[in-house]
Structures
1.
Amino acid sequence: MPDSQAADKKAYKSEVPVQLIVFRLGEEEYGIRIEQVKEVTLTPEIARMPKTPRFVKGIANLRGDIIAIIDLEERFRLRPSNNDPVTGVTYTMALEAKDYTIGIIVREVPQPLSIPASSIEKAPEFIQDLNVHDKYIEGIARLENRIIIVLDMLKLLTPEEIMQLKPKATSSAAAERR
Amino acid sequence: MKSREQEYREMFMAEALEGYDAMSQHMSVLEKRPQDEAALGELFRLLHNLKASARAMGHNEIGEVAHRMETIFGQIRAKERPFAGSAVPVLFTGIDVLGSMIRAVGANEPLAENQALLENLDRVVAGEEPVLADDSEVGSEEDATRKLELSDLVYIPIKKLDHLLNLVGELIIDRDRVLTLARELGDTTLQSVTAHLSRLADDLQYSVMDARLVGVGTLFNKFPRVVRDVATAEQKQVELTISGQDIQIDRNILQIITDSLLHLVRNAIGHGIETPAERVKAGKPEVGQLSLSAQTDRDNVLIRISDDGRGIDVERVRRKAVERGVLSRDAASRLSEAEVYSLLFDAGFSTAEQVTEISGRGVGLDVVKLAIDSLGGQVRVESKLGEGTTFFLVLPTSIAVKGALLFELEGHPYALPLMHTDSVVSLSPEKMHIVGGTLLAKVLDENIPVVRLTELLADDDAALPPASRANLTGLQDIIITNYNGRKLGLIVDRFLRQQDIVIKPVSQPLDMIELFGGVTLLGSGQVCLVLDVPALTRLFLARRP
């Protein structure tokens, strides 16, 4: 696990920069390693797919590929006022998961950011308060007055995580919500 | 359009010429190494194949020569004689004669028996000395002037055709998009170019689909052997009749139904057709009749597997359903015959061994059903106790493009495959009534349960609320679907149109939701979900109030 090694700054104090794509969810800033981001586009028209968890916004046509679009604010309940739906122009980051591409919807244009690997610390215990379960978090990057939560997308984007169900379940995905 | 006969001849020619080339090559290997076992084995096999296919095509002259040569190579292979001496020139002449006969078939010329050669071959077979004519040199002169020929047919791995078909699918989707854009922009030049592009794409699509078509016979012709083996094992006498081998169908569809057909044929012999003694007792001829037939039915192919055996005992299936707790006694007694038959295809029911023993049917019928469903096809059964059973498989000709009915629900377009659509009606709420919480519509003297598709697709998995007419105002657009004999009316917001669509599979991870058979892109660029009628029907049965 090279990632966890990089995150462990006591053991490896190297100054190799890490390229992140940084985006905002709720009030916090999150980052994903740039290799996992395929592209960022204006959100295409989304067709809602019945019988999927609410945070799965639906499917969209991205250059001929039909991909699922998910809303992480809804997934982690980070929306400031809970019933405020995403309106206006939004952006979609196409991420490369293990066997498929998936879109993450964000409100502002995600920005690239280069930080030294040593600035990513392992997530401390208090992370429980952050709504985002710590198993999805690779580490916390501290930069002057910014805190960026670096997500481990591969863990977040497994089919089980997205559908919130055990593999091989039937169409009763929605029943297992929350 | 080429005639079927023409096409068969081309196939025979391609195979025979290829075989001839290979045989010539193996002969020259043997000349250098007379004991080369690989070459001997290949020659034996190629001659055997050539004999069989030539006889099947009615070219007995080729068959006679090939048969004798096969015998000789059989002897050489069994080390009964060496590849040496005077037999060698006779064998070489034999190969040459086969070559010229094959070419004569290709040129559509009559074939002549080469009496001298046949006699010589017979002598070699019998271990006698062949009579070698002095003019055996003539053959080699002919060899020197012979033209080299390449076959007019190519073999192509089905994978390459699959890839081609996928590309065409993408092209069709883009074409629709371009057509829509051109119309929106209103530029006449662009419109005429796109119209041409559209025709080309259509042509390409049909050419690729056509290239994938094979005769149903390629599968059917394997059955005489299967029937013989199964009948022998079951100690039954069965006569198989095959018809419609020429009906064309996509090769992959044929591949997918292979196991199902095997199942149905085995079932028909194992459980349908009675033993000779039982048949005589029932006043039937000793030999049971089994028929496999194919015919085109509009855009589909209808395959029929029919036997004159004992038939399905509807009452026993009913009793079994009650015993197994699938249905209440009351519900079971109210089922129509067709509904009873459809029980046989239900998983869990059909795999039950007891049913197999009693009704004589049911082994793996759910598997058959699944295979046919995966193709968007239909399967149904008709039976008469004591007279026999017929299974009907309705299959699409091609997998790529399916006719679909497009409709709108909450502002989004959806598609339903026409294969599972019975009819569409617009009814006012007064024409429907509520029985036991379920909305029923009378369509063509049949009471069909009707449900609002929005409610059925709601995220909730609890039972549907009891139907009420209060939330239905004005004419309701209803699509009557039909799956496994079960009809279900779906109230949608608005019918859009009927259209041929290219269905793409739903990408992971959403492919876990079985309600959708796939997605398609409309000309507008909109994503359109394709509903799966079998899954919808199951969902309705599970959530029925």
Note: The interface with chain A takes residues 170, 173-174, 410, 412, 457-461, 504, 506-510, 512-516, 519, 521, 525-529, 535, 539 of chain B (CB under 8 Å).
2.
Amino acid sequence: MANVLPPFSLADMAGEDRAFPTGSPSLVCFVKEDCPTCNLVMPLLQAAHDVGDVPVLAAGQTAEGNRTLIDRHGLSMPLLDDSTLKVSFAYDVETVPLVLAANADGEEVDRLVGFDRAEWRAFFESHLPNADVDWESLPKWRPGCGSLTQDPVIAERLRAESENNPLRARKIEIAPADDIHEFLFDQGFTDGLPVVPPTPERVLRMLGGTARDSQEVVAEIPPNYAPATVEKIAINAVLAGCKAEYLPVVVATIEAICNKTFNIHGVNATTMGASPVMIVNGPIRERIGMNMGLGVLGQGSRANAAIGRAVRLAVRNIGGAKPGGTERSTLGNPMKFTMCFPEWEERSPWEPLHVERGFAPEDSVVTVFAMTSGPALCVDQSSRTAKQLAGSFGLSMEAAHHVRAHNAGDVLLVISPEHVDTLQRDGFTKDDIREQIQKVTARPLADLASTEDAGGGLSPERLADLPEERRNRPTPKFASKGNIHIVVAGAEAGKFSGVFHGWAGGEIGSMPVSAKIED
Amino acid sequence: MTTILDPTDERVPVARTVTPRTGAVHGNVALLDISKPRGNILLDRLETQLAERLPDVTVNRYAKPTFTKPAPDALRRDIRDANDFVIEALAD
């Protein structure tokens, strides 16, 4: 099938418009001044022009370069100004010089790339038999140079400006007199810290991190129930400082939090101040350089920090959940900036979280938990047996929400490597740990009632209404062992594990959700 | 000139018309309990006071299944169709 070359109209250096197709057989050429091979062939193009019966439309990639080429080679042929590179981009020029022979209908019939004397000679004999060229004076072969359109920065700008680019979001123009960072703050696009301006070039680069269509709707984010397209998520990922390879994790996390089971609306709105804690499992952890060791729950890792922040910014900007609006935390918590980390599966003797939740070990998965506080440390440097240590975890975890609040929902325990070693020595399973936590925290309801000295827990009146058997029945801290979620992470040194306290659990609140991370 | 892409949902602000305020309460008044603890007690007191001050007004009581989630569509429709006013007892 004939390759119909894109039509164009470009001005020559005298300002006269030259259009293609011309209605007769013609040559379309792309050159740039700083390419030695282009300089080699300029006299040949001039010779082609001098024949007179085939229009030669030679486009130079910089205006200044065109002027230099004209002076240097004494050209009388028109040199067209493609300094915007739009025609070079439309022709997908990779290497210059590029010479295309077109028929009267503008279809490509022949092409030359770089300089190969035999090819050029055959080309001229075929299309320009009357041209006067001393072929023997020319070198046998010279490679071409990269087209300016292939420069990474320029290529992104051209893709962003081209008509078939994948961007559909509203463009906002910021006047030169405005400080762009102040503008982004003023628009309410940030979480209170500076963000990376989401220029079209950056967003296109971000979209390169996923194979998904940019307009695919991943979820609807409350409270606005706005469609979160891959593009909108990518814009927020740019704001947050993500690299393109993080984007699949951000997209999967948005899917997970917008699952009705997770109930992101309630998590945002609650006065208790909940936030998604995101745990990443599987091969992607290593691939994108997540930190699962020293300082895992703190600052310093771009992947950990930026992925969590991108999710929060997407919820704020796309969903419209803002403090003072539908975000109504009494105190808030720093996890509302970001809280995302990977499990150190290789340092754990147990099944990793995603495998426990039904995924294959080789799957990459993100799991979200609605948490209100954490990490609250369990500092235990004295336990020498697994039983002691697991019991110690339980006592620390009893503080979740309130020491007297038993029958609680989800909790997330992050066990550090040194504590793992103590548990592993005695062959404790995750279930053994859960069992011991429930055992040491089981107390009769009568011991969990509000007193004159300290409130919280059941009211004395409510306690009095209960049958005696219920009052005396030991009630563990958590409603079930299944509410105790366990992962391994942190530095090799330090007998400190961390606990994230949950929010309202079950049907009336939020339940953990996992989503597979797809490229 | 720097161009950025809008990170928001691009909703155009919709000018909403507020129902005219007549200064009088009449017809049916919905009292909506969002199911936070003791919200029902507040609404009980309110209902008593409304009955004393506005004996011609009919009070209809509603409750959301849980305060953590938006009211179900059916409940929102019921409240809208059967009432002229709504008083919602918010959290805390």
Note: Confidence is low (pLDDT under 50) at residues 12-16 of chain B.
3.
Amino acid sequence: MSATTFSDGELARIRAGFPILSRTVRDGKPLVYLDSGATSQRYAGALDVERAFSEQVNSAVHRGAHQLSEEATDAYEGARAKAARFVGGADEEVVFTKNATESLNLVAYAFSNSVAGQPKDPRLDLGEGDEILITEMEHHANLVPWQELARRTGATLRWVGVTDEGRLDVDGVHGPALGELLTERTKVFAFTHVSNVLGTVNPVRELAAAARAVGAVTVLDACQSAPHLALDVTDLGVDFAAFSGHKMFGPTGVGVLWGRNELLHAMPPFITGGSMIETVRMEATTYAPPPQRFEAGSPNSAQAVGLGAAIDYLDELGLDRIAAHEHALTERLLAGLAQRPWVRIVGPAEAVDRVGAVAFDVQGVHAHDVGQVLDDQGVAVRVGHHCAWPLHRRMGVTATTRATLAAYNTPAEVDTMLDALDRVPEIFGVAS
Amino acid sequence: MDLYQELILEHSKRPLHAGLREPFGAEVHHVNPTCGDEVTLRVHVEGSGADAVVKDISYDALGCSISTASTSVLADEVIGHTVAEAMTTHEAMRSMLTSKGADPGDEDVIGDGVAFAGVSKYPARVKCALLGWMAFTDALHQAGIDTTSKDKS
């Protein structure tokens, strides 16, 4: 990695942009926020932009003949352009949704919605004998919509397994290999860029190329990569990518679906109503071209504008530098955990093709109890199955404790967490 | 930290009356979907109406120290008591756990359950502490036991 990590001075400036990081919790303990994988903290600059939009510009976008409406539309469409630039796509390929879950559902429903009355594109025609391929490491958001799609259409859901180390079992060590799973029957292959539990970075280019070779549409869950790794959909070769504003220093209530233009054009609408129409008669309606076709109703304009500002900030920090910084933190955390024989890391033990989502199991102590002991010392982590229950079952654990790192975390915070963790065997009297 | 009282740790390490036994009138399976904690619980009740007695509570629990210990306390406090007494204990336990720290619990009613008073200050853990108790009352209903008879004690 050629980019450098952040200096202490840079890190202090970054942290100053996130006021919540200087608050205390649990009787005056400094907050150590290691739960950005669930939701990141909000960049104050993005909050300022969101508030300024609401105070000075707010009005209905894409309608109205007044100046405010023009300015609001410009701001909203400006945010779309930023999101497009962020993923390396075209403006009209960016659809604003309420979150990544909605983005993924939007794509899943395109395969089974016939309400549009337009000729069905063969790529979106799904039925018995067809297959949907996902992976065993998916977040429920990229799992349940495909299960439901299979149920609605009669298609079969299949999945690529996970190795003991926590990588996709592409070679078929424990089950069928990718080559056996990905066939001409596969109509869609949906997979995550980065596992929200294991931290594993999947070989997206290779997976997408293999899917393309059999004519399957590819859907990338980019939630856990967007704030950590540079994202270029053209280079990756996927057809769709979904991510959420609140995981990348932006507001809740706004997500993005990027889709290849010609596929979006072939898709029926998902949610219908105002703003997404071309002409409406009592008998029937025709629909606007994408992205408007997929943005029914009044949009979350202030949130989209806030997300645009968060994207600017990520660009300003530089995703290559963020990745370098987080890589160093991840190595520090993994090394610290490896020194504790009573901890089992669930996911790759080396910081190779992995990011700073680090899940682990403390021998003989339930994750809830581990999280509680950390919380008591000001360290915020997530416990449970992190919306990836099948993956936990596969890894042989009911629940894990998960620390997730972000650009604003410091080496000292990693050390505080490791020290706090040492209280766990003390309290629960297990071998340390 | 005051959450992990010695009694709780003790019960979680060596849960009382654990394991699934026969006979039983009903078996239920409850989960805490946020963390995947699970409990399978059986009840065996003899008699009816005000004389109904909980003869056995047997269970298989997979969960955190709070949920495991709470189920252990449940079994220990309730086995051998009338259904009416059990419901009084359940109500006292529920009331303490949901009091946000206001109700310290009455040892005469809930016994070792008082060790869980600290849990009520941690809203995310209240569900853990109630998992076994909710399973127990559900099992009584599944077994067709009348839980409305008044405690005569």
Note: The longest strand of chain A covers residues 186-192.
4.
Amino acid sequence: MNLMYFTERPYRYVPEDELIKNRAYFGLPNTFFDREKGSQLYNEYLDEMVYAEEVGFDAIMLNEHHGTPFCMGAVMNVEAAILARITKKARIILLGNPLPTFKNPLRVAEELATIDCISHGRLVPGWVRGAGSEQIFNNANPAYNREMFNEAHDLILAAWTRPGPFRWEGKHFHYRFINPWVRPYQKPHPPIMIPGVLSPETVVWCAERRYPYLGLGTALPATAELWNLYGEVAAKQGYEAGSENFGYLQHVVVAETEAKAEELGKAHLFGGGQGAFSRPEHTLPPGYNSKEATKRLARTMTAGSGGFLGVSSEQLGRAQGAGEPENLQRVADSTRRRMARGEVTIEEAKQAIYRAYPKAVAGLQIIAGTPKSVIPKLRTILEVLRPGTLGFFQSQGPVSFEDRMTSIRLLGQEVLPAVREIAKELGLVDPFERQPGQRPYTPGTARTQLVSLEALRA
Amino acid sequence: MHMMYFTERPYRDVPEDEVIRNRSFFGVPNSFYDPEVGARYYNEYIDEAIYAEELGFDGIMLNEHHGTPFCMGAVMNVEAAILARVTKKARIVLLGNPLPVLKHPLRMAEELAMIDLISKGRLVPGWVRGAGSEQIFNNANPAYNREYFNEAHDVVIAAWTRPGPFRWEGKHFHYRYINPWVLPYQKPHPPIWIPGVISPETVIWCAEHRYPYIGLGTALHSTVELWNLYQQTAAREGYVAGSENFGYLQQIHVSDTEEKAQEEGKAALFGGGAANFSRPEWTLPPGYNSKEATRRLARQATEYGFLGVTSEKLAESQQGERRDPNEAKGRTRERLMRGEVSIEEAKRKIYAQYQKAQDGLQIIIGTPKTVIPKLKLILEVLRPGVLGLFQAQGPLSREQRMNSIRLMGQEVVPALREIAKGLGIVDPFERAPGSRQYIAGTQLEPLVDLDALKRAPKRDESVRV
Amino acid sequence: MADWTEEVTQVAGSNLAIIKGGTGKPILVLHEELGHPGWLNWHAALAREHTLLIPIQPALGKSAKIDWLRNIHDLALWYSWAFREKDWFPIDVIGFSIGGWIAAEMATINARQFRRMVLVAPMGIKPPEGEIMDIFSITARTALSHSVYDHDATPEYAKLYGGERTPEQFEAFEDARTENTRLAWEPILHNPALPHFLEGVTGLPTHIIWGRQDAIVPVSAAEAYRQALRNTEVKVTIFDHCGHRPEIEKSNEFIKLVREFFA
């Protein structure tokens, strides 16, 4: 079982009212950034990761977002570089580098190869298309998002594995001589993992390449469905998928008492949580979705209250956000519009946000508690999804450094050993114990069950 | 006086014959790279930087080159990020990030802001146009090199200093909303230094922006000329240039005895040194030079007849070489290919230049006692506020390198500080460059010491280390 | 009402949908970035004396996508090829917003392709004052809403694109936005070379029409177009209390003006 520590490295001092009113990204001017606090937070996060390795996590996971206080990992490779040197054995798992926004993928191939070398082969690079807002921030043409993703991916792998020098003449990228001097430590190339929020296209793509797919806190039934899809594609590709092909990221915060844990768990809803991540028009720039996805969305829209062109991308955004806590998203969205019209006060808006907490807990979107109370909930997730990799996502919002470190300590001392026992009992193996795609599948034979929805019902 | 430790982080185990035969970059295939060896070097170089800080260096300088065993800092920001966390007080001086090859300067602004924050304000970013070969490696159109440089520079500075969100519609870069959440620690932005080799255009650009100019081991006589050009431009801009506006990088190797130093120091000539950095056709891709620079070259090169103006010769004349073309490095490579010269002869020729390289101060080799007077002469002539000590390239062992750092830190650096104090040299942190107003018509104080220059050796430009 | 037809023809190596209506001397109509907005009053009015030929931009509606077109200039070259094959030249042309930009590009390729040209609030030139609204980082609805200055005074606003909320219409919008994002994402909805090429346009009487309160393409660009077209006869009309859609915001005046210009 591969157990990862993850924090999104939020800027925790942004005024909550601003987030609720304007949402992140270009809604929130960077004049709210304070250098002293930013500097302090970056170093605290590095301390957290070093500590997480110390208490027994197998890996540190990083992610990347640009221009938002939700995640200060604007160029997460900067942090990955530091971890390569200051940690000793933990894997450094990047979920993921937003390939379509790079413009010079060869540079990223060099960057990651350098990090892999410095860490002596502990890097696990992952790729994402990048949220819609990342395309706008980086001015990456969203209509070419999938094409640039595919070509950048192929180019990086070629730079890592094909002996140089060779020429690359693609549709979007061109190089006269590809001959990066520095090549990755791991051969033929570092293992790759792909995170996702329920796009079937991505799941199929992963299964075809035997890349483990990691669900980012997506709803359990929908996740189970997609993993079955992965299993089917894998079978068609001639291999049997298993726990080594799957990972899951779960919000978990642990404290000495239930009361304290609840306080920390609620911080996850700070500013509206995921609902305030980005404005819908920034989430779905034109061409970002595939034609099929747009078609699906267009159909899922209900007739609702008429009005000219009432099919707003706001609604599209919500429909797309199926993997996110639906209720949180809806609350934050309608609240912003109503606030703009002066129908709701900021206090009422906040109340609406935090009222959603019990539901989020009941739906396992947030697991907060003492080690004793969180372990059974984590067991449910392991039983349902049977992932080989599990990420523990530290609480967002105004949680103190001390509370974060306490959570890490309790996870390390009590939760991780218990989770390892459960995983052993369930026979879960991770991608480093068993290489994904190594078990051949004979057509017509029965496949082992990937997920267990019975466990969810229980 | 700001003293920097610098190593180009070479991959020291590349077969020397390959470098001599094919030159670096795309000439030497990356199949010669062994990740195990590379991993060891990267970590050793970080150890060296930490040790240099411990021993009293004020700054760690990094540089960047892509696709060459001469410098493993393919994306030096990776190393800068690590130094931000593992060092405590040294400045991290980047000389420099190749702006025209990035294609996405906003990402660079974010990257550097993060490093500045993690280091609590110890970053000194610098910018370069990138060698010609870097344009080819990154496939950055060389004909737009200067335009990319200028616009990327402006994007980065605007992203750091103008409150977001704002739109950028330039010629080469376009952003709908510039609003990086992470902004640098240092206000209004980190201090910027610019390294250079000989381009007067760059010197003028630096003077106009009040950015200190760091000469990368350039010959003293031509460096003096360029610094005077800087000073004149500064005066026109209304400020007095002084030692705070200048820096110099010097290649050096120190050991316990003269004999050991001389033996180890030969490593600096490994593979032909800078002469084999890149092939001429990659050093000067079309459009990389300004029209004026091309014209200068064209005039120097016409003596070789129709189409005899090979890019080899162009490059050599750009480097200031004036000698029998038959002895040119390019010729050696060609003659090697034709089998007229053996690899052993080629090597002998390279190492035969060792003494000349020392005579011209291209490389200073010795014990603390013998290197200090040479460095003193450089300080006297150039009066730089910043001095970088450049660890020799080539197959030096870790022990030899660490020993050199120790001797520099314990004996050379303190001595140089005393000398600098005596000469009244101040660095850019003691006095902000461009902060002294110049009143038009008044006498400019001498920037350099011409008397000392008379004592300085003339460099044999055919020798390249 | 439905005095128009749509047919898909094979032309210039692709399939192009063309809407055709009216009788008389033909006018080529190049539609805006969201597509053909429907048969409006001005269509009907002009159709009494003219045959309107409205090609649907490749990748929109029933027109096939042409993947190898990478920018608006490419599209203008392709249109030139396609209409030459259809033997439409020389022809009167009217282009709206991005369609105006395409028309201007076609004029720079060969001014003789057109007899007379009307550009209605064209994109394509960076306005000297203000910015072209980035329609790609806002919703289609927001862009539409900004395109008309006074909604209450513009009854036809409610008729744009059928005025109904259907999944099909939403998909059509996303198709149009996707294709134009592909072609015009960067530089943001303009071509820096266009004003220079327009200097080479001669013998093509041109009428530039704009709304003073245009929130999509600032009216300052009208003067930039006039300057660029200085070697041909050019007329500029700017309507007050009018946004990006003079054809529906100042419908009567617009119809009169265009009818006279193409007479």
Note: Confidence is low (pLDDT under 50) at residues 302-310, 320-329 of chain B.
